[in-house]
Write a structure and sequence with these properties.
Length: about 475
């Protein structure tokens, strides 16, 4: 659900906010420059060229010609080229800080007034010394994309938005990249008015540990893609009670996370949402989940078993593995699981999702009793797999199926395969022999990266394999032979 923010300001016209009308550059005879807008009868602060460390941006100004009027806008690049200003105070009356207003400047602190309503896109981006942002009490401010991007000295932030029906202020969002790259940000306090966390909002906030108000915000419904990507200090997430969607890569590489309990409201988990988290050892899936990407929990080496609410209508857990509700599709095997027995499931499982065993610790797997026709893309990629038994029904080995695994040998001479995908057996350092019967198609670089000690045998004439080409064995030193 898209966040909606409605701002009604009964005492000021829209024209005042937009800054339209004839503008006149005012030479004040000082280091401060203000521009007068004759239509709105307001001023904009445009530049400071002095060398003071502390400055005040006025809320009212009189240029001696046009009279005393409000200063409502801080314009783009107002401190461009100034590397001496460290502390800024903005007086009451200012409404908008425009895009890139302070971006790249040397400011260390800024104090903002209650009148401020908008901080536009990239307004403080790359202010690498900014460590303190002080808002007036009960501020209601909307923040643009990348507003505090790469503010690497910022340690704490309290989101300044309250629901104020008298002013027509309803809900807001944390926009895309708003705090991305704020590597010192330790604590973030959520407003109750936040309905959405935008894409990459906290990307690479590697010090973030405290999400105050995150678990009690009843309006928050959506966590965007890559929103907490690489937040490597997050240990625990207590989710807000009404979250409906978690986007792709939302908590990717948050490798200090130990457990995740999902709210009952959650309906969708995107690709790689919790992937690559080394410490995550417990996943409790809620009853209302309708969509889980097959890669959502990829490469969780400490996870040995999923658990799920039995009332879930779309998914089931058997022997710690995640299946479709009818057990016909194997979706994901926890990477920390060391053994599996499909005997009791032999009459159910007819398909396996991509990446199902990715990164698995299992060294031996027997799928021979299953009735599957395809081993999908990256099924055992980057796994500890040394040996595998595959069913006679198998027709397709997907691309990257065994890529970078520990497979030592594989004899498929009893199978008639339709195709072997690109890179299917590439970069398998320990493989000694691969034996196939007739194969209809072999994709590019299927055996790339194998060593000279590997023997690859096809029990068919080379001409039968219509896709034979030089890129079969690009970067492959293995011995490839064809036997009629």
């Amino acid at each position: 659900m898209k966040a909606k923010t409605l701002i009604l300001i009964p005492l000021l016209s829209i024209a005042l906010l937009s800054g339209c009308g004839q503008e006149e550059e005012i030479d004040t005879g000082s280091e401060f420059n203000y521009t007068y807008n004759s239509e709105t009868q307001t001023y904009s602060f445009t530049a400071y060229g002095g060398d003071d460390e502390s400055i005040t941006i006025l809320g009212e100004y009189d240029d001696g010609t046009n009279g005393l009027h409000p200063v409502t806008i801080i314009e783009t690049f107002c401190l461009e080229g100034n590397d001496t200003v460290k502390n800024v105070t903005v007086e009451e009356g200012v409404i908008d800080i425009m895009s890139d207003a302070f971006s790249g400047s040397s400011i260390e602190s800024i104090t903002l007034p209650a009148s401020l309503l908008n901080i536009e896109m990239n307004a403080f981006a790359n202010c690498r010394s900014l460590s303190e942002v002080t808002f007036a009490s009960n501020s209601s401010i909307t923040i643009g994309d990348g507003a505090f991007l790469n503010c690497v000295a910022l340690e704490e932030f309290v989101y300044p938005f309250v629901i104020n029906m008298d002013l027509g202020l309803y809900y807001t969002s944390i926009p895309a990249n708003a705090f991305s790259g704020c590597t010192s940000l330790r604590s973030f306090t959520f407003s109750d008015a936040i309905i959405e966390i935008g894409e990459a909002a906290f990307y690479n906030c590697t010090s973030l540990t405290n999400l105050a108000g995150f678990n009690t915000n009843t309006t928050l419904v959506s966590i965007g893609a890559r929103s907490f990507y690489n937040c490597t200090s997050l240990v625990q997430i207590n989710f807000a009670p009404n979250i409906q969607t978690i986007g792709a890569y939302a908590f990717y590489n948050c490798n200090a996370l130990t457990s995740v309990t999902l709210p009952t409201s959650l309906g969708s988990i995107g690709d790689y949402a919790f992937a690559n988290n080394d410490a995550l050892n417990a996943i409790n899936l809620n009853k209302n989940l309708m969509y889980i990407a097959s890669t959502a929990f990829l490469n969780l080496t400490a996870l040995e078993a999923f658990s799920i609410d039995a009332e879930n209508a779309y998914f089931a857990v058997q022997d710690g593995m995640l299946f479709s509700k009818d057990l016909s599709t194997l979706i994901a095997v926890p990477a920390g699981k060391t053994s599996v027995d499909f005997t009791s499931l032999s009459s159910n499982v007819t398909s396996i999702e991509e990446y199902a065993f990715y990164g698995s610790k299992m060294e031996e797997v027997d799928l021979s009793m299953l009735h599957i026709e395809e081993l999908p893309s990256s099924a055992f990629a980057s796994s500890n797999l040394k040996s595998i038994s595959l069913p006679l029904s198998l027709k397709i080995i997907g691309e990257y199926a065994f890529y970078d695994s520990n497979l030592t040998s594989l004899d498929l001479s009893s199978l008639s395969l339709d195709s072997i995908g690109s890179y299917a057996f590439a970069n398998i350092a320990n493989v000694v022999s691969l034996t196939f019967a007739e194969v209809g198609y072999v994709g590019g670089y299927a055996f790339s990266g194998l060593t000279a000690s590997t023997n690859i045998t096809f029990n068919c004439q080379q001409s039968i394999t219509s896709s034979w080409s030089a890129d079969w064995n690009t970067n492959c030193l293995a011995n490839i032979s064809f036997n009629a």
